[in-house]
Amino acid sequence: MNPVETLVRLPRATLEFTNVVLTTPDAPIAQTPRDVVWTHRKTTLYRYRSSQREHALPVLLVFALINRPAIFDLRPGNSFVEFLLEEGFDVFLVDWGVPDEEDADMGLAEFVCDELHWAVRETLRSAGSEELSLIGWCIGGTLCAMYCALHPEGPVRNAVLLTTPIDPRNSLYTTWVGGEDFDVDLIADSYPAIPGAGIDFANKLMKPVTNFFTTYRRLFQSLLEGRDPRRSYQAMAKWVADNPPFPSRAYREWITWMYRENRLVSGRLRLRGQRVDLRRIDQNLLVVTAGADHIAPPPTTVPLLELVSSGDVTHLDRPGGHIGLMAGSGAKHEIWPELSRWLAERSDR
Amino acid sequence: MAEQERATPEAQVARLYEEFESQAARAGERLVGTGGFAAVLGQMAENAAALTRLSADAMDLLLRNLRLASRRDVVRLARQLARTEDKLERVLQELEEVHDQLRQADFDGGQANTRSRRTSTGAARRATSGAAPRASTDGAPRTTTGSRRATTGARRATSQTRAAATRDGADSRRQDSPARRQRSSR
User: Fold this and answer.
1) Which chain B residues touch A if contact means CB-CB below 8 Å?
2) What interface predicted TM-score (ipTM) does this complex get?
3) Distance (Å, whole) CA A278 – CA A283
4) Distance of alpha carbon B106 from alpha carbon B100, whole angstroms
5) Is A206 on the interface with B (CB under 8 A)?
6) Can you give the pTM of this predicted structure?
7) Which chain A residue lies closest to B142 (C-alpha atoms)?
8) Which domains does chain A have, with CATH numbers?
């Protein structure tokens, strides 16, 4: 494109850019039809409608506490849920909802021992199955690992952990919140529900130039070159901006137990008096790490592979970021088929 | 090298800019990874938290003095509701388990009857044809699951009705309470 052409396109690109940014909240995400199976407090268990269920084991999707699980079903044509349904799985999703001040008493034990445990129970009842596959992503993966460690004889046959922090010793988060400079008690006492915007800001600060500038510059450049990334950009931007608050008790425990005391790996984490011993995990295990993940870099996940006692352990390390690996444009042809194959081989009676 | 020589000035400017941006990104990531940045971030978070707490306390005090329900009162009520929901969920689960056990007992009883009938028929058939008995209970688990699922919804509905009934019962108890009777007799 020559300079004159660029100048001619500039006003239109500027207008389109403004329009794309301003209409992002209206972008349709999480559109796959689903039914509410069970609710408790803010937690909702959904089951996706399907007429082509082939595999005996249902799949339960668990996402983190700091973003919404819509990322599993981002937009029609680029949805992991849609893909799993097409592959013949019976898909359930646990949504932690949007906690508020009244949920300040929700700690990790409540999420793992109550909400997740009950969601598993309701999934089994709904699907009429005795076992299931758990897919956890980010903190959701950590919660799933805790659950599997607490219930080695339980109904989970397959556990898939996607970009999951397990041993965050040398991570950037540990630099920020693991030291004395960060008073987690003051924060947790001041905010009964830690504002999602604050957590989102901190996450973006990890890659400041990329998140605060490059994303917008790339969008503008695409529009200037006549491409229309509206659908993909808006869906992702809407999801990124939707940050539910983090219940203060869970936040305090997460920061203290994971980043300050590294209790999960050292086997000192207790939920309701029960020790969460990762060595008790004996389910079929698939661990997925992303090479360019800055939130849960591979070294924070890989130690799990040495700890568990599962006889069937698979590790996939693929290029991509924390979210991009599973929700990027290439995921549908790269990582999703691998996950589906792994699950399908282990999902029959 | 030859490509660089052939590249237009605009392409060269764009390439230089992208290089600058990626260097800035790397520098930014190095900066945020330092202990100094972590200390600044920690203090900023503490200041924000302290300010929020002060303003929330002041606003609550103001509303309370105006004798209006403040955020704190609403949260207290919501917490009580959440506790009640916790209890209800546990009761529901207990009910479902008892129901499942009863169903299973019914099913086992029914199966035992069928088995005894089948055994006698099978024995008669074996006596005549000499065929081996088929150990097939293929449809049985699906039947139980189906019925279990079908009853779950019903049970939920029943429990809701029961909750409503309990509410009504509580109301009627309240109406018939000694204090009320005393008041009405006065």
Assistant:
1) 10, 21, 24-25, 28-29, 31-35, 38-39, 41-43, 45-46, 48-50, 52-53, 71, 75, 78-79, 81-82, 85-86, 89, 93, 96, 142, 145-146, 148-149, 152
2) 0.82
3) 11
4) 10
5) yes
6) 0.82
7) A128
8) 1-27+196-244 (no CATH), 31-181+245-345 (3.40.50.1820)
